[in-house]
Write a structure and sequence with these properties.
The chain has 167 residues and is α+β, with helices and mostly antiparallel strands. It has two helices and ten strands, in the order αββββββββββα. Strands 1, 2, 3, 4, 5, 6, 7, 8, 9 and 10 form a ten-stranded mixed β-sheet that branches. The longest helix is centred in the first third of the chain and has 40 residues. It starts with a helix and ends with a helix. The protein binds copper (II) ion. Copper (II) ion binds next to strand 8.
């Protein structure tokens, strides 16, 4: 009877450590969830408002998209790229006028200051330029992924609009 006690104790210890291991796993998973929640909050710092892209017929493959980017965070964020399954390539452009001629220049990154908004519109000249785009019909929703310098990627739908009615 007495000889069995150490065995019993050993078994109990094993059982306890197994339970402790399970608890550790639960704590680990909870901390992962918390990390994920924090990342989600950081991600939510950036909002895309009123995103739309100009309608194009099948014979045209170049078009532009406009939007407002809102940064609700305490740090500046930098848009560095965009992509869409509906286009071969998307570039970040800024248009401006030189000697009465409209020009546009590719931007390697665009800053959205902390607690601020940046409009991609005719006033600022910023727009997303779509190359090799498929035909887009007014009313469609086009998925676009915006990529930021900190590695964050934001998937948003852009509404296809008739350029004339939008301007
Ligand atoms: Cu352009």
């Amino acid at each position: 009877m007495k000889a069995q006690h150490p065995t019993q104790g050993c078994f109990d210890n094993k059982h306890k450590s197994a339970r402790f291991g399970a608890m550790q796993t639960v704590i680990y998973l909870l901390s992962l969830l918390l990390l994920f929640a924090c990342a989600e909050k950081k991600a939510g710092d950036i909002e895309v408002v009123d995103a739309w892209i100009a309608e194009i017929p099948p014979v045209i493959s170049v078009t532009a998209a406009l939007m407002t980017l809102r940064n609700n965070g305490d740090k500046p964020r930098f848009l560095i790229a965009a992509s869409s399954p509906k286009a071969e390539k998307i570039e970040i452009h800024k248009s401006f006028v030189v000697n009465d001629l409209a020009r546009m220049q590719q931007q390697s990154e665009v800053e959205i200051p902390a607690q601020s908004t940046l409009d991609f519109d005719n006033e600022t000249g910023y727009h997303l330029m779509f190359y090799g785009a498929q035909a887009l019909k007014a009313g469609q929703q086009i998925p676009v992924i915006l990529k930021f310098r900190d590695g964050y990627e934001l998937l948003t739908n852009y509404e296809v609009r008739d350029r004339r009615s939008a301007e």
